[in-house]
Give the backbone structure.
Amino acid sequence: MKLVFPTLAYKEKAIEFINEFFEYGSEVDGSGSLDSFVKEGKTYESWLEKVNAAIDVANVDYPKKVPALTYFYVREDDDRIIGMMNIRIGENDFILAEAGHIGYCIRPTERRKHYATQMLAEGVRVCKLMRINDVIVSCDKVNIASAKTIMNNGGVLDAEFYSERFGEVIQRYVIKV
């Protein structure tokens, strides 16, 4: 398994990946908004521009937005996108309170194979390289699998609250690196 920065070469695989979530009626997190772009009929190329703009630290619309890195989590033996991860390398009130530094998802047909735990560990490693010492990761309270994934990576429950923005109870965890 490896983290791969999105490129045009992954266009078909990325669209197939996102469409699987739609097919299964599954929520998508950590895709850098690829799901929204596909739903709205926007191009993969325009999404790539957005992903590239998000790493342009000097020109991110801070504090509304923060710099972020988006990755595909790719199985090396068949080059299949198994998951996606968005790592927010900047902080604002929303990141610190609700969204956290890392958002992630695993395609529905590849769940329950420990990929999420491995991928989150890679994300925490990236955060450590970016000198983020207290990595905040949040999940819906009802998402027991995600909570276990976070705890398997050393996450300690920091807060539980109702989020007006998301319309549900959120659990916020901190992973010390």
In short: The longest strand covers residues 80-88. The chain has a mean pLDDT of 95. The chain is about 35% helix and 30% strand.
